Amino acid sequence: MDTQQAADLGLIVPRLILDFVAISILLLGLYFRNYRRPDLVAVFLACNVGLFSVLTTLSFSPISSAVGFALFGVLSIIRLRSFEFLPTQIAYFFISLSIALICATDLAGLLLPFILVIFMLLAMAMVDSSRFRTTTENSTIVLDAAIPDPTDLKVHLTKLLGAEVIHMNITELNLLQETTTVDVTYRRTSK
C-alpha cells in the first residue's frame, strides 16, 4: 500500500466509523425499537451505505462531479413504488441519507460532521419519542353518508372514532353516491 492510499484510508475510516455508529443508533436504537419494521431498516441501511460508498468513491477518484450527479439521477429513477411512505418513514429515510452525505463529505475534519450527526440523531429521538407519537393519529376515512356541513361532520367523526377531532379536511364529497372522504387528525379520549 503506498503513502497516498494510506492517507486516503486515514481519512475514510474515521468517517466510516462515524457513519456506522450513527446509522446504527438511528435504525436500531430509534426506528426498529419504535416500529419493529426490519424491512424498512434494511431499506434505510442500504440507502445509507450506498450513498456513503458512492460519495466516498467519487471524492477520491478522478471521475467528474457531473458523472456523480448523473449516477444519482439514474439511481433516483429506481425508487420504491410498491407502497406509500408514511411521513415518519420519509423522515428516517431523509436522515439516513443525510448521515451518509455528511459522513462521506470532507468538511475539513471530523468535528463538524460529528456535531451535525449528533444533532440529527437528537432531533429524531425528540420528535419520534412516545410523547410525540401517541398524542394524535391521522386517518383517511370514507363515510357512507354525504355530510357537507363541517360541524355535523365533526360531531359524526367524534362519535364514530370515539375521539376528539383536532383537524379534518374533506377531500371528496359525492352527493350522488352519498359518500364523504375526509382526512382527520384525532386524539383518543381516555376511558
CA radius of gyration is 23 Å
- Which structural class do you get from the secondary structure elements? alpha+beta
Biggest β-sheet: strands ordered side by side in the sheet: 1-3-2
Strand content: 15-25%
The run of helices and strands is HHHHHHEHEE
Contiguous low-pLDDT stretches (5 residues minimum) are none
Overall shape: it is: elongated
Q: Give a count of the beta strands, DSSP E runs of length 2 or more.
A: 3
Tell me roughly what share of residues is in helical segments.
55-70%
Q: Tally the helices: what do you get?
A: 7
Domains counted in the coordinates: how many? 2
Task: Please give a structural write-up.
The protein is of the alpha+beta class and 191 residues long. It folds into two domains: 3-133, no CATH class; 137-188. Helix content is 62%, strand content 15%. The protein has seven helices and three strands; from the N terminus they run ααααααβαββ. The protein has helices at residues 3-35, 38-59, 65-77, 87-104, 111-127, 130-133, 150-161; strands at 137-143, 163-174, 179-188. It has a three-stranded antiparallel β-sheet. A hairpin with a 4-residue loop joins strand 2 (163-174) and strand 3 (179-188).
